[in-house]
Amino acid sequence: MRIVSSVLVVCLLTAGAVAHADFALNMREGVTQTSRSVYELHMIIFWVCCAIGVIVFGAMLYSIIRHRKSRGVVAAQFHDSTFMEMLWTIIPIVILVGMAIPATTTLLAMEETGDADMTIKVTGIQWKWKYDYIDGEASGISFLSSLHPKHNEARMLGSDVDLRQFGDQYLLDVDNPLVIPTGQRVRFLLTAADVIHAWWVPDLGWKKDAIPGFINEAWTQIDEPGTYRGQCAELCGKDHAFMPVVVVAKSPEDYAAWVKEQKGSVAEAATEALREWTKPELMAKGEQVYTTVCAACHRPDGQGQPPVFPAIAGSAIANGDAATHIDVVINGRPGTAMVAYRSILNDVDMAAVLTYQRNAWGNAASVVQPTEIQAAR
Amino acid sequence: MSTLSAGHEDHHEHGPAKGLLRWVTTTNHKDIGTLYLLFALVMFFIGGAMAMVIRAELFQPGLQLVDPNFFNTMTTVHALVMIFGAVMPAFTGLANWLIPMMIGAPDMALPRMNNFSFWILPFAFTLLLSTFFMEGGGPSAGWTIYPPLSLQMGEGFPFMIFALHLAGVSSILGSINIIVTILNMRAPGMLLMKMPMFVWTWFITAYLLIATMPVLAGGLTMLLTDKFAGTSFFDAAGGGDPVMYQHIFWFFGHPEVYILILPAFGIISAILPTFARKPLFGYSAMVYATASIAFLSFIVWAHHMFTVGMPVVGELFFMYATMMIAVPTGVKVFNWVSTMWRGAMTFEAPMLFAVGFVIMFTIGGFSGLMLAIAPADFQYHDTYFVVAHFHYVLVTGAVYSIMAAAYYWLPKWTGNMYDEKLAQIHFWISTVSVNVLFFPQHFLGLAGMPRRIPDYSVQFTDWNMISSLGGFVFGVSQLLFVYVVFKCIRGGEKATDRVWEGAHGLEWTLSSPPPYHSFTTAPEVR
What we know:
The complex is a heterodimer. By secondary structure, chain A is an alpha+beta fold. Chain A contains ten helices and ten strands. Helices cover 66% and strands 0% of the residues of chain B. Chain B has helices spanning 21-25, 29-57, 68-103, 111-130, 157-184, 197-228, 242-259, 262-276, 283-296, 312-324, 326-340, 349-372, 374-380, 384-414, 420-447, 461-490. In chain B, α5 packs antiparallel against α6 (197-228). Chains A and B meet through α1, α2, α3 and β7 of A and α3, α10, α11, α12 and α13 of B.
């Protein structure tokens, strides 16, 4: 096996097909106590399997070499041994019990989600994540986190972008990473707006499903500042491969600075939501929001992908009464892929994207102001 | 196929009908077995072609060939076709051919139903594959069809559901037939504990099918009413629970994976003693181990769902129960090795595939044991590690056993020996390439590559390229299998009745090829 792979690898390398060899073989140890316990369990069970494998395959190999008809052996005719049957029933049970003990300890520690220093709500949305800081100094901070636009462009079918420029971060980079402080026990509440997703950062040692209508709990504590990458692990539709998770762990001081900055923009957004916006302002912002939030399903040109994702360009709703249009976006369309954006988009973003939808691609309808959204909620 | 040459006994009143209509109206267990096996072979190549698309797209990062939705359709339909269209019908075909000959019966107990249960299948799979040409494309939510995602499917959705319903009906009818045949049609003296292991494993498999197929049908019907009749079984907004679908699905799904492997255990337990020229070690332990595995299969389903957020007590229960499966499975492997031990072995193609099965199925078993450890599963779950695991168990397990069976019994069925040299070449190319294909996927999963993605980060490139190369070679090398099989059907060195020096069992007492109605007078079993 190894020889065959090695030969293939050499061929590939000399052909220049591979820019850098990166033959990772094993699980990463990760950066949390949990991930290290999981790694240890993984290595123990791996070596147990190897030991059993050596015995079983060794016996087979010996038998295959020695007990061949071509060597003139005469077959023995034994076909039963209660002693042996007992032996190879009891020994595996003992091994399994030995294995179950550390597995149980680790599992109990992983599932103990109480006593957290702070809580973050994670919502999976086709195909991005939303992070809400629930409590503490960061309470009120809330943002969407999607695949970085550069990567998004590069991953399109038939794009000529050289992926090697992104290195190991290709498809694992986002516009707004989740930021958490080091040394604190962070509890995650995971849910989803549309379909089931799974939030996974290998370096934290676990993944957990984000399920619409339900809330799952998990926790982590990272001690070293750094950037840790992962992605959605549960098939969630067409762009499942393109919803990465990036966690940036910052020292408490850096984290406090980040929170202050975010809080500033939260306050700014609140005042912005109250003023009258001009149409060009709304159109410019709307295009940005449309690109990150709507374009994956309804396409950048508003043509949609019927029958599942209807076209917005030329649609009766986008060209008709604003109230209906606002209602569809705020409350979604139950039974379809259109989720309720009530708690996903703020007043300004929703007004902007509605205005954009109603005035792009030949659509001609009214401008929607943030205050109208506020009233409609 | 064997019966094409049966015209020499014209005084026989119940020979096969002439012409193509014979295959439509046949109630003969051998004809129906042949139909099942040919159908499975066709489906194996259709599913295989989809695997080639998957491996071609994954050859390097970036999207080169297909858009992500079509990629999801490929992974979904590849699985559905391989499981319900290739492996299950292949085992049913083997059961049809072999069970009457092994228990000393003239035919299956319910021959007309037998015809019906086969002829449902071509319609079911035409329906399934026709969804490719509908608006919204084929099924793309994975073979597990989890809601709410599966409810976003286009117009193909109800067609997929009906196709699976039909396949389920076919399986249930086939299983009833097998159970009735085994319980009623055994020759005098063929006590239950004297039945060949293949008959035993199929007997148990048939019960698993009858117990679980209706559960799948129920879950699928609930999906259908959620989509079209306004129910909300799986919609939290209407008071339902999407996770309930997963419980229902895996209550079917876990026994299903044993449905795909128990008959393989029976085949291997037939082949190893023949080529070791030594009786099967621990026959009764093998029977009890099979029954234990079948029982355990009903209480481990949620190990497919460790990450859905079960109560910790539930996670512990399913972890312990899953680990227990290693015990009876271990008994089987140890018994096989003991069967080989101090035998006088030769390594014709069936034996090569059988030994390959034992080694590579055990590798799949090891990764299964690793996956049972719930905390570690939080890392492994939904990665390529799982993909590697179940392909070791299903390709080098189930599929290898089917190929072993084909080479082992083809001379009996056709009266001709197959081309041994080509068959051995087929084995070696397949075995090298299948390991190049699937072994690196363990590394990919551990390094953090999720399954069911059409594009991946650059650091996963190298192993993916190697895996794809292995995949292409494995795919193409199966054409050799088809060539060897059809060459054998058309002619070749005449086979003796016993075919293999060490073969034991009633089927080897019949002529090669066997008469159209296997045992018209019941043989006496000592």
